[in-house]
Amino acid sequence: MNFLERLKDGLKKTRYQMASMIGGAKQFDETFFGSLEDALIAADIGLELSLDIIVRLKSAMALQNAQTPQQVYALLKKIVAGDLAVTAPVVAPFTQKPWVMLFVGVNGTGKTTTIGKMASAFKDDGKKTMLVAADTFRAGAIEQLQIWADRSNSDFIAQHEGADAASVAYDALEAAKARTIDVVLLDTAGRLHTKVNLMNEMEKIVRVVGRAIPGAPHETLLVIDGTTGQNALKQAQVFHDVVGLTGLIITKLDGTAKGGIALALTKMLNVPIKKIGIGEDMSDLQDFDPAAFAESMFGDLPE
Ligand SMILES: Nc1nc2c(ncn2[C@@H]2O[C@H](COP(=O)(O)OP(=O)(O)O)[C@@H](O)[C@H]2O)c(=O)[nH]1
Ligand SMILES: [Mg+2]
Questions:
Q1: In a shared domain, residues 157 and 48
Q2: What are phi and psi of 248, to 5 degrees?
Q3: Which of the ends of the chain has fewer CB neighbours closer than 10 A, N or C?
Q4: Residue closest by Cα to atom 1 of ligand 1
Q5: Are residues 13 and 53 in the same domain?
Q6: Residue 43 reports pLDDT greater than 80
Q7: pTM, entire model
Q8: Percent of residues, the chain, with pLDDT higher than 90
Q9: Residue 303's pLDDT is what?
Q10: Residue 293 within a domain
Q11: Which atom of ligand 1 approaches the CA of 113 most closely?
């Protein structure tokens, strides 16, 4: 299976539910919209956005005089694809050297794996990459990143377990300048004892990184596990408030994810989805394509 087929496979539960719900509709009355609301919520889109989508769908249906399930489905799909296509004014990548990317997110969402995958893609592009173990919480985390650094032929900077994450980041950036590195990928911890500690640490890393290289971090990417439900929304908002996210990366869309969390997140934060992950291998990370994602969540209704 190619990447798109695997994404479609991952999201098939949502697609089948949507198609059977709308395909089976006899009329588009309040009972129908109630069931649609349930289906959207079941797909992890969240109550608020689901209601908002239904309001927009109703007016699009009136405007276009949509009467068949196929017409209604097409309108819904178009609304979802539009909501997924959040763009934000970001500085063009690699306009500064080193280009600094900071990865944040709670424990286990896939930060380290994503960094490894991205580093290997940058390497294939001929870039000089550096991975930085600013997740100093546990020795295993440092070793795990080292393995990805070896695999992707990247420079690797780490200190001992328990070292101050911000100072690891600062030293790494000084080294990156000296070594004329093109792109620095900073791994961070997501598992400090309290949310306050975690956020204080994130805030400090951002401050220190900006001191080492004015304008850095150039990208601050939140990695989210696509199988997390609505909890992800609260998580993401907290990170956004503290570090100012420039992009989202949604992982584990190959499992039991329903897909709607991607939609709810990007719409809530007005931050674009940059990449999606559908597996643990090097090649299992791809650019986000809103239309293809909407297609994977909704597919087509048979005539
Ligand atoms: N199935 C699947 N597993 C993933 C994906 N991305 C990461 N993982 C796995 O999720 C687990 C946690 O990943 P890790 O990178 O260590 O998360 P971190 O704690 O945020 O650094 C590991 O077992 C990864 O192999 C993905 O897209 N799909
Ligand atoms: Mg990690």
A1: no
A2: -120, 145
A3: C
A4: 279
A5: yes
A6: yes
A7: 0.96
A8: 89
A9: 72
A10: no
A11: 15
